[in-house]
């Protein structure tokens, strides 16, 4: 039996595991899991069912989750379909919902109780959130997408699920100034690998969540001995960190130095990071 499953990617515990792992791992019981969607603006995932520890990542409104356990204390344990991340989260922030048809492409957009921008909004949704559009409406010349429950979103802030942008790096650049948040995965706050993941998604490129996963799996490995040869969209990795090349000698990254998504001259960033716990560059990769 295999015993070295990464807890972030495999719904496997000693007492409980997903049914699909039966025969691969020893567990007290195996369950199929139930399908839900995130009903909160953002859903925090934690490694344990405790509020006093840092988050691993976030699920976004409308994303699908397979739930394997719910506790009387209001916790649930499950796996996010978007990137396969496993963790503990609030069971109050999930619900059964319609299959999404559209993705939020604006950095942020309000969900209104009706197609009327003067009404108090219900939610503030981040880029990457998913919604199911049931109809259309127009109010004073502004087009809205209407959801099944009658709530509405400004239509130009959405794209169909299959839509892709030719320049995904531009989506990363649009997040310039976004606060750095460890484990954050929204336009209200995000970390280095979430910046890469959310932006790449707009170009139809699905990436794993954390920087070590991206370093091992994203695109194709390329040489980095001469950083001046790197081109727009190349990813540069350090131990526990990733940034995006946007132009010659220019790095865009969500970082704890400025505590924002920021540009930094690449040569200066390399020297600065080398003097920290993150050390030297470890890898470069190019997305296809």
UniProtKB/TrEMBL annotation:
It comes from the Bacteria. Keywords: Hydrolase, Protease, SH3 domain, Thiol protease. Gene3D superfamilies: endopeptidase domain like (from Nostoc punctiforme), SH3 Domains. Residues 31-99 form the SH3 domain. Residues 162-288 form the NlpC/P60 domain. CDD domains: SH3. SUPFAM superfamilies: Cysteine proteinases, SH3-domain. GO terms for molecular function: cysteine-type peptidase activity. The keyword Ribonucleoprotein does not apply. GO terms for biological process: proteolysis. Belongs to the peptidase C40 family. PANTHER family: MUREIN DD-ENDOPEPTIDASE MEPH-RELATED (PTHR47053:SF1). This is Cell wall-associated hydrolase (Invasion-associated protein). The lineage of its organism: Bacteria, Pseudomonadati, Pseudomonadota, Alphaproteobacteria, Hyphomicrobiales.
């Amino acid at each position: 039996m295999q015993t070295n499953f990464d807890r972030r990617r495999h719904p496997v515990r000693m007492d409980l595991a997903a049914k699909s792992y039966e025969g691969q791992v020893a567990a007290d019981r195996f369950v199929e899991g139930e399908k839900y969607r995130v009903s909160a603006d953002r859903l925090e995932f934690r490694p344990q069912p405790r509020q006093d520890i840092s988050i691993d990542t976030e699920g976004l409104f409308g994303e699908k989750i397979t739930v394997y356990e719910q506790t009387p204390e209001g916790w649930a344990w499950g796996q996010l379909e978007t990137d396969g991340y496993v963790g503990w989260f609030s069971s109050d922030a999930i619900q059964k919902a319609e299959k999404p048809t559209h993705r939020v492409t604006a950095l942020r957009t309000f969900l209104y109780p009706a197609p009327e921008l003067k009404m108090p909004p219900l939610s503030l949704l981040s880029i990457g959130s998913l919604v199911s559009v049931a109809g259309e409406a127009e109010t004073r010349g502004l087009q809205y997408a209407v959801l099944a429950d009658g709530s509405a979103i400004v239509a130009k802030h959405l794209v169909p699920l299959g839509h892709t942008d030719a320049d995904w790096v531009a989506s990363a650049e649009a997040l310039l100034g976004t606060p750095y948040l460890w484990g954050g995965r929204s336009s209200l706050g995000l970390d280095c690998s979430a910046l890469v993941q959310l932006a790449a998604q707009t170009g139809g490129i699905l990436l794993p969540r954390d920087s070590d996963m991206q370093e091992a799996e994203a695109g194709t490995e390329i040489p980095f001995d001469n950083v001046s040869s790197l081109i727009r969209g190349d990813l540069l990795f350090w131990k526990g960190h990733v940034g995006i090349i946007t132009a010659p000698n220019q790095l865009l990254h969500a970082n704890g130095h400025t505590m924002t998504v920021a540009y930094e001259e690449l040569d200066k960033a390399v020297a600065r990071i080398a003097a920290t716990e993150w050390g030297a560059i470890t890898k470069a990769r190019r997305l296809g």
